[in-house]
Amino acid sequence: MKAASIAELKKELQEVPPAQLVELCLRLAKFKKENKELLNYLLFESHDLQAYIEAVKEEMDTAFAESPRQNIYFVKKHLRKILRATNKHIKYTGSKQAEVELLLYYCTKIKKAGIKVGESVALTKLYIQQVKKIEKSISLQHEDLQYDYKRQLERL
């Protein structure tokens, strides 16, 4: 079965009565945890982006506090897990500002945790890839924000 395009879905959704639209949204939320989380963000948290970013940062703090320190393999797996969750939240916001702030915070937490990125090729590549993503997102920001974010990036 072939899925319809976004334009076709939009056109069809505009013709659906509001009560039925609510039912469709709830049914969609039941099928996947990500759909439910996105709907939760859109309904309850999208109005205050800064508070959402702070909540995600607190979640990252908790995850970094639980990270293993001994085996580099487990450290790498844990960092990727944190990054997956962070990228999921970035995708929900759809904001480049949130992307820059959260990825900068992620890289800062790696440095502060004392994780030796240079010991593993995979960790080095992971870190460099995030720095590249940050640089790309910074270039799309307003000039004043670009300056502030570039200064934060240079500290890393």
Molecular structure report:
- The chain is built from eight helices and no strands.
- Helix 2 crosses helix 3 and helix 4 runs antiparallel to helix 5.
- It is globular.
- The termini are far apart.
Offer a quick outline of the entry.
The protein is mainly alpha-helical and 156 residues long. The chain is 80% helix and 0% strand.
Supply database-style keywords:
single chain; 8 helices
Q: Provide the low-confidence segments as ranges.
A: none
Q: What is the average per-residue confidence, as pLDDT, rounded to a whole number?
A: 89
Q: Main β-sheet, in a few words?
A: none
Categorize the overall geometry.
Answer: globular
**Proportion of residues in β-strands:** under 5%
Protein structure class: mainly alpha
The radius of gyration over CA amounts to: 19 Å
Secondary structure: number of strands: 0
Secondary structure layout:
Blueprint lengths: L5 H10 L2 H14 L1 H13 L3 H17 L6 H22 L2 H17 L8 H19 L3 H13 L1
Helix pairs in contact: 2-3, 4-5, 4-6, 5-6, 6-7, 7-8
